[in-house]
Design a protein that fits this description.
The structure is a homodimer. Chain A is about 35% helix and about 15% strand. Chain A is an alpha/beta fold. The first copy, chain A, has a four-stranded mixed β-sheet with strand order 10-12-1-13, covered by helices on one side. In chain A, strands 15-16-17-18 form a four-stranded antiparallel β-sheet, covered by helices on one side. In chain A, helix 9 runs parallel beside helix 12. The longest helix of chain A is centred in the middle third of the chain and has 32 residues. Chain A is globular and about 105 Å long. The relative contact order of chain A is 0.13. At the A-B interface, helix 3, helix 5, strand 5, strand 6 and helix 8 of A face helix 3, helix 5, strand 5, strand 6 and helix 8 of B.
Chain lengths: ~525, ~525
């Protein structure tokens, strides 16, 4: 695909070609982006699993450095209402509102998931985007569905974008009113307002919903790509032969089955490409605005995603598992400072995790990433051409399928419906709780991940090695977040000077100062009353 | 030792003979008692490492069941001030005060650690006990030290209890004013007040500091036990021959060296026994009061400790490591209800952890322990004579020595100064982060734990098996605390009825209801504005 604007950022910055998300599902992945912590650490393991009140976020770290953190778009964050109630926090207060929005101040929160059914809307919030559409004359209760995410049937009725057969129709909306241009406009409004209000410096999380289901895009993007533009599918019949049970369950679900049909891929992928192209154009609009206003010279820009999409590869749709299509994401970072001049336009293949961004932003603003809280590592050395010593040797991703039909089908208890991925450049390993065998791919000899070696006795040593890495990782110190290493070191030996005198039999074992003044002698006679 | 009152409770209840603390150090152990969670989960891994604001405590669980939870004595809890500030919580508010006191309402907080040195008091709070002593006429700034924890020299000056040579002297205080009777009186006052104020039902954490350093006890307890009452020391010269480095560092510290001297043991242990005897007498006083007021008939009583004490065994003093002397604790539970009649006076040797108490208390009050938060398991089945299926196969304990001289001596970074114990009835295993070999004891053939098999190649399989258990445990789901398994199960399939329609190519793939009403057809023509 031709994406000249995203490419422009890549030319200005560094493209990280081995960037992985901490979980291939929106909510959990985002909570890792926003906390800089693994899912196993923050616990918000799936969509709408609330993020604990106590988790410290990017917004907290940035505010400590004098930077306001703002949201424009989607977070898929669900508030920990029980945690809020326990601490008497109201979402109407400034602090409570931030805790309710994973640390961001909200310029515009719109997750773009305005599905509606017999039980109501999937997202019970107000929809600023639906309000916008109504204000522009789009009719009905849910123009997000009826216009932005639907086409028109020949008889002029709504051709719902939920039906993938409609993916090749143009969405029945003016292009400028569709989701990506709308949210880009909000980002521009945001920057204008921050400038006018003295709200700089800021961090802006501009979070597009698209590309995402429903798969449909307005003119002219709907027919820019024909089905002949669709890349060959990456899958093999052998993958369906005795697959890992969890993988098998996902191939067997409605999404996997649908995306295994050529007609689905041939309809959806061109629309998906159109949605990407539209994003690229809107990023161009944003860059032009930032160029005109000078922001391009003092703003770090990061382009990334919360997960990928199988789109039929490996007999799967959407995300959820750990093939590269799902767990690997684009990550491009443009750093305007002089130190980054030497790396502009380069590609870095270091193993990067989404949690690295929090650390990167902290260090960009001159802070020191608190390693006892933030588990990611700053990418600044890579941006500034410095080798980063002792860089991580493997990346970790997790998936919690406890709320999905796969858990039911496999008869797995909610606490066992969890997957862990450990990957480096050579191997990708997946452990599944609940008594299943692992999965293993040889990324050198099988870069398309078509042959699962997890049941192959010849790879027992590799599997054992990956299990050791997983154990090393799960033992990590992830919860000692209330005291830093430096504070611990500074605390050493302090109790002696506050009078705790242990292992002392007599004066010969003790320091004089402590002995004389605090052990009574100097206080003279000691006569107990009564 | 003759402890008729503790024995009385054992006769009324069940004695758990294999009870372990989650960490053999006061603060970390207590935070596990108070949260029902492992140290690796709550992160307050050592004394004065603050407990995170977000951690849910026994007090929270009990309040949900209509039971107020009160503190009378020690917690060794340090407030997470940064976490409080982040959420705008004041310790002056009811909620903030509870968060500051690990979930308890405070009837009396007194940690009993009023050491004082050139940098001030070890504990910067006000000391209700010191205030009491002053009100009773005990002189000076710190009568806790000068009277309650010191004897008198021949020349009538203070014989500081910090010097273990004085352990055989009587503490220079009226027995009724010493720490254990004082706090017992507070517990009685507490029960009186709750009755008068309608504060029942309550949970009371009566937390004695003694037996504890400074090792000294008032008359008549100071000479109840002679040095001939001291049990033979459990140690062997071979333990000092090429020990595990962490064990070696602890043998080498001032405490280990002191308690390896016979004169120290012979002075300290009789005082320690006197302190236990005094506790037993005070428990008798409490039981008598509870008998007279009827509380004995409706109050569950638990006797336990936050850790043990080596007192010279294994060439060590105090606690910190995982020999039975340190990590195993007394645990006796008396349950007044009829269902417990069949088990009164029995001993249960199931592997019990301190975190089990939170779950036990919740279920005693008719609640269901929230397994997504509380990691311990209710002991009620054992109290009520029901076999508990699938009981745990091993116990876990941890120790964080990052703040101690051992970390300096061994050159271990703060995040690597961590130990994990896995034990069952047959084996005790210890993993040390930082590149050290493990330790291993054969509890069947070496119940005194004198021979460390951790470097013995003949035990590689056992060590590997224990590492697997450790890995299984560290992978556990400990942070998904904002949503229960039941809530997850109930959430399944809900998004479809809120309109999320995935993997649907055309109407043939979708349910009719969803298709007709929410996919546009029924809404008639769809004409986008201008």
């Amino acid at each position: 695909m031709d994406t000249p604007n995203i490419d422009r950022i890549a030319q200005m910055g560094v493209r990280f070609s081995s960037a992985y998300v901490q979980s291939p599902v929106c909510g959990a992945s985002r909570m890792s982006f926003y906390t800089g912590r693994y899912v196993h650490s923050h616990g918000a393991a799936w969509n709408n699993f609330p993020l604990k009140v106590g988790e410290i976020t990017l917004g907290d770290h940035m505010r400590d450095l004098g930077v306001q953190s703002w949201l424009v778009g989607k977070t898929h964050m669900k508030v920990d209402q029980k945690g809020m109630d326990r601490l008497g926090l109201s979402s109407q207060s400034v602090i409570g509102a931030r805790v309710s929005e994973c640390g961001f101040d909200v310029f515009e929160r719109d997750d773009g998931l305005w599905a509606q059914g017999p039980d109501g809307f999937y997202d019970a919030r107000r929809s600023p985007y639906n309000e916008y559409l109504k204000s522009k004359g789009y009719a009905g209760e849910n123009p997000w569905h009826d216009y932005a995410n639907s086409g028109v049937e020949d008889d002029n009725t709504v051709a719902s974008g939920w039906f993938m057969k409609h993916a090749d129709k143009p969405a029945n909306i003016r292009e400028e009113d569709s989701e990506t241009p709308y949210m880009t406009g909000k980002a521009i409004e945001f920057m204008d307002k921050m400038k006018a209000d003295g709200g700089e410096p800021w961090l802006c999380h501009l979070s597009y919903i698209k590309p995402h289901w429903p798969y449909i895009v307005p003119e002219p993007y709907h027919n820019m790509y024909g089905h002949n533009a669709v890349q060959p599918v990456i899958r093999d019949d052998s993958e369906r032969d005795n697959p890992h049970p969890v993988y098998g369950a996902y191939m067997d679900n409605a999404i996997g089955k649908a995306f295994s049909r050529d007609e689905v891929r041939e309809k959806v992928i061109p629309a998906y490409m159109g949605l990407i192209k539209q994003c690229d154009d809107q990023i161009g609009r944003l860059l032009d605005y930032m160029g005109k206003t000078g922001r391009i010279d003092d703003t770090m820009i990061v382009i990334t995603s919360d997960h990928g999409d199988y789109l039929g590869d490996h007999w799967l749709g959407e995300k959820d598992l750990f093939h590269e299509q799902s767990v690997k994401v684009p990550m491009i970072i443009y750093d305007p400072c002089d130190a980054a001049d030497q790396t502009r336009g380069t590609v870095c293949d270091a193993l990067v995790e989404s949690i690295d961004l929090v650390a990167t932003f902290i260090e960009t603003k001159g802070g020191t990433s608190p390693e006892h809280i933030v588990e990611g590592r700053s990418l600044l050395p890579f941006l500034h051409g410095a080798a980063s010593d002792n860089w991580r040797e493997f990346v970790v991703s997790e998936y919690d399928y406890s709320a999905t039909p796969a858990a039911v089908k496999l008869g797995v208890a909610p606490r066992d419906a969890r997957l862990f991925m450990i990957a480096d450049k050579n191997w990708k390993f997946m452990h599944a709780e609940g008594g299943f065998r692992p999965m293993l791919f040889d990324l050198i000899n099988d870069p398309q991940e078509l042959t699962d070696l997890g049941a192959d006795a010849a790879y027992a040593n590799t599997i054992s090695f990956m299990y050791q890495r997983l154990a090393q990782w799960t033992r990590r110190m992830a919860q000692r977040t209330t005291i830093s290493d430096d504070e611990i070191i500074a605390s050493r030996g302090k109790s002696a000077r506050r009078g705790v005198l242990l292992g002392v039999y007599d004066e010969a074992d003790a320091e004089d100062e402590l002995t004389v003044k605090y052990r009574g002698k100097a206080q003279g006679r000691s006569v107990a009353p009564g």
